[in-house]
Amino acid sequence: MELEFAKMEGIGNDFIILDDREGKIAHYKNYSALAKKLCSRHFGIGADGIILILESSEHDMKFRIYNSDGSQAQMCGNGIRCFAKYLYENKMILQKKIRVDTKAGTVIPEVITNDKEQVRLVKVDMGEPVLFCRDIPFESPNEKAVEERLTVGDKAYRITAVSMGNPHAVIFVDDVEKVDVKGIGRSIETHERFPEKTNVEFIEVKSPTELKMKVWERGAGITLACGTGACAALIAANLTGRARDNAIVHLDGGDLEIHWDKETNHIFKTGPATLVFEGRIRI
């Protein structure tokens, strides 16, 4: 079977976009196995994950994402921007604001175009943050975990637990460049207190409106960016008095603007999405 695909990236977080609205791919090969094959950077196309475009009866379109290790993620902030750009520029969707079915619920991206109707930026209503430990999920004696002590081996970290449809552990550091992202990230991702595993964000506060972040993503490892992680970082920084409700988050792949609208309790994320190349691959 030959697949047509698009390789896209959102500030360095890269994805393989596949149109399976007719269900032919699912009939031929399991999505999880396909993700492992296609995302291999030596034996496949190479990506942090695959994104499926699927039909939805109650939304404009359905979004499903599988990480490079084959696990399914509930949502991806950078991926949803790539998804929206692809739909709009390929005229699968004609309106600029799109209602998308994700495993984390309804997400609403809005494309921002130039005078040639090319997508310049995508603004995403990421919905409301989840702060209750039982819903993240994070095992804790407390209702919410704000800078709660988490012991890993003989070391202790202060984490703030947030869900943006997927779990996050946010840790504030003095210098993010000196952090062992792989070592610490991997150990916290699989910590027993996170029964569904977790993403791990390391945040250096540059100012009340500027954060610098590195991330270890659940199921993918170190990535250049994580959109839901940037949202979680702003929430944690605001809850702990380190940042305002609007900030630029600097990631290795680029910048995202995050705004927490306190009136609606919704998080809005704005950033770019880029088509890298298109092609065909035989599986």
Low-pLDDT segments: none
CATH class of the largest domain: Alpha Beta
Element pattern in H and E = EEHHEEEHEEEEEEHEEEHEEEE
- Average pLDDT, to the nearest integer? 97
CATH homolog superfamily of the largest domain: Diaminopimelate Epimerase, Chain A, domain 1
The overall strand count is 18
CATH architectural name of the largest domain: Roll
Could you tell me the CATH topology label of the largest domain.
Answer: Diaminopimelate Epimerase, Chain A, domain 1
Enumerate how many helices there are, as a single number.
Answer: 5
Q: How is the main sheet built?
A: 18 strands, mixed
Structural class: alpha+beta
Binned, the helix content reads 10-25%
Number of domains: 2
End-to-end gap: 6 Å
What would the principal axes of the Cα set say about the shape? globular
Strand content bin? 35-45%
Radius of gyration: 18 Å
